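re the bet — no i am not wrong, look at it urself. input seq straight from the record:
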Amino acid sequence: MNITLNKKQAIAIGAIAAAGIVLSILILGTGKSGAPLVPAVKAEAHAEKKDEHGHEEVEGRLELTAAQSRAAGVVIATAAPGRIKTTVALPGEIRFNEDRTAHVVPRLAGVVEAVQADLGQLVKKGQVLAVIASTELSEQRSELLSAQRRLSLARSTYEREEKLWREKISAEQDYLQAQQAWREAEIAVQNAQQKLSALGASGAAKGPLNRYEIRAPFDGMVLEKHITLGEAVKEDANIFVISDLSTVWAEIAVPAKDLATVRMGGKAEVKASAFDASAQGTITYVGALLGEQTRTAKARISLQNPDMAWRPGLFVTVEVVSGEADAPVTVHSTAIQTVEDKPVVFVQVKDGYQATPVVLGRSDGTLTHIKQGLAAGTPYAAQGSFVLKSELGKDSAGHEH
């Protein structure tokens, strides 16, 4: 069958045939040269990972000058061997120092005439807290005054009889009787004075004989107050509770497995749960018995509290050192950051820092053992590493765009 082509169709067919010949030549030529197209694309992509100066970028690298590092608060330290402490953390609570807490009682029944201390007030030793009127105190002071006057009379009689006896005027028996009466009067005065002293009252009272001043037993804070003006109080009424808060106790519950670690005289660190504060203390008591329900023993740590920061009722965590071990490579715990869910340390390199992945070991909160990724003697950012992490994140976000 004969097919007649017009001029336009012939030109189109010729163009298609020519294009096919050219494409075949290109394919055959490329295969002989041994340079595949895919590696060429990869090389181009790799070439694009350069900074604005044409330098190839290294992943995790952060360029900073010395001045910029100082401005960021970066402090350089050197990875070195160290001693890691192993601690046991136990929950606890701040309590009053019961050895310095007093329940103030009147020791005499009476009627309240004045109240001079309020809740939360800091008082000094010997400061008057309240004044009551007591008939019993009035009788005791009257007895002392009578005994003192009898003593004065007995002393005068003794001195006169002694003089007469020495002058051979009176008999020795009169002299000895006067001496005996004087000694008995002295005993009566001492007895009356000791009665008043046991009540916390003095004999030389100014004003009414029934005025009884209740005083603070030591420096402290008024924690409880159960007394009002005009109230009749009994001798055993608990009218004030005063505690010296310059020292407090941190009480903890120690499981049986940790009793070998928590020992009297040991050192412990107490950390507040509500705010950032810690203090060193000494274990002053470990209970010998386990609770029937809790199966734990009570222990306490004595803490100095000069600023009244450790308030009774505050929940704390007590860390007791259970052991120590040497580590060949350690860094400050503040140097460790997390980048892409991996722990890293910013190692100081030329013109900046390199985020170096590491494998962590034990830590005591101050030092951390580095198992892998860092050698002893390597300089690193001990402080300011969080700022470096932030700057590294900014650089990564900039390159993505």
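see?? Residues 30-58 have pLDDT under 50 and may be disordered. told u. also The helical segments are 7-33, 37-48, 66-71, 135-166, 172-198, 385-400. so pay up
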